[in-house]
Protein: Phosphomannomutase
Amino acid sequence: MSGYPEAPVGGNDDLPNDVERLAEAAVAWMSQDPDAETRAELGSLLESVGSSDPDAVAELRSRFGERLAFGTAGLRGELAAGPNRMNRVLVGQAAAGLAAFLVERAHPGTRPSIVIGYDGRKNSRVFATDTAEILAGAGVRAVLLPRLLPTPLVAFAVRDLGVSAGVMVTASHNPPRDNGYKVYLGDADEGSQIVPPADAEIAAHILRVAETVALPDVPRSPDYEIADESVVERYVTATAGLASAPSGTGTDGGDGIGAPLSVVYTAMHGVGWETFARVLDAAGFPRPALVAQQIAPDAAFPTVSFPNPEEPGALDLSYEAARAAHADLIVANDPDADRLAVAIPDEREAEGYRRLTGNEVGQLLGWQAAVAAAARPGGAAGATLACSIVSSPALGVVAAAYGLGWVETLTGFKWVSRAPGLVFGYEEALGYLVNPETVRDKDGISAAIAFLSLARELAASGRTIADRLDEFSERFGHYGSAQISLRVTDLSEIDRVMTRLRSSPPSDIGGLPVERIDDLNRADGAVPASDVLRIVLPGARVMVRPSGTEPKLKIYLDAWSTRGGLGERHDAVVEVLQKLEGGMRDRIS
Structure:
């Protein structure tokens, strides 16, 4: 089929029929694989399968028994050979399917176009170049970003360049062996990630390619463009402009420029620093102290086992650097810089610092956005704050206080970014959209600039982020959140738990009475149907849903209080969260 060498299955006639079939599929896969590394490791696997190695047989079934699904999150998985892994064959098929989709939906007489970006993970540049060549070979105008860059640059470039679509090759904060493929749409979608029905339409084209065309027969062309550096410069200018816009915190009435603020920054071995540094310079912020071991892109992620700022241990080097610098603030991006983590000094913590939850950062940035929107000419009419359904309901209280709309969406920025009249959106997993006129996706760099602006203004009047959190609790009520993640090896266990909660709904959780249970599988028009349960209790809420990317059941706990002083509110919320956690663990055990 392609001239690539084939590997024997081992000559074992005693293999089960399904294994023989999968082995034949693996040999066919090898014949179209342009990557010497994955061809070699697949050949070795087939040799072991031929020797009836049970681990090899299980691995073959894992790789070839199903296909990595293309959905609203695009593709994401471990790097290895086979249709259930990330590799050049799978990416080539995805690119050809995406090309067919873009050509099909293009207006008559017009040529579709796409911008393609990539981060510093293994094979990211290879996958991006393959995509550019295949899209160009299909007659699509393909523009490759000039070098490895953060994910928000692709969302920005889709609108900035006026193209039909965008692709970002990244696995964001997934483990080091993973990579992925995110798709954005232009035109009326304004650079947002794909949503139904586009995802299913693209997936159908990909499957057709996989079933009917060998990858070497997919047309390719070297006639793709390399984007000019000016697209990065325009992103830098637009993002730096957030710092000069009124933050509206009401702390001192000034802009806070010149206030001393000591900051530590980590890029988590990702691609954020070069772009973030340019934005800081353009915005007039001093350069932060750096976590030197994590500042350069490194696909091996040598200092973290899981490059996600939410994971235990991921910020240990940042805490060490912050203690040495007596820093007021730690700012961290994940490897593709679409997420932001923030930590502040806290003597009660062993590290001397406490990472703020995504809800705490979202509340503060949402408050900023609400004040700024209310101060606009014409007031807040038509302006909306948005968050995912599993994020804290605190943002809705802020919106009501300033006369703004409030929208809760399904999880994922593909939904948050589409809220009408959006001025700010977030979800609790450290994702924030602070500048919807520039980027219609979460953006850890623009969020960092907005947060630094707030911190700088507070510092100018002798205040801290901790003080601002207290102000929030005093004005709007104290809100707290926690999570439970139940990891399973058998996905049917998640179905059993969800079925049990639906068929035998609890009347109380941890001794707290249940007021009602909303089953979001039954769409009510507010959000599309989704496998989520919302359990409402007095001053509290529990959200239960299967993870969309991992074999986990995720439970989100929220509690709030407006009674008494700050200390009483805090203690009441802590007590309720403890009861909810204990009660839900009993329910899912």
Observations:
- The radius of gyration is 25 Å.
- The CA atoms of residues 483 and 556 lie 5 Å apart.
- The chain has 17 helices and 23 strands.
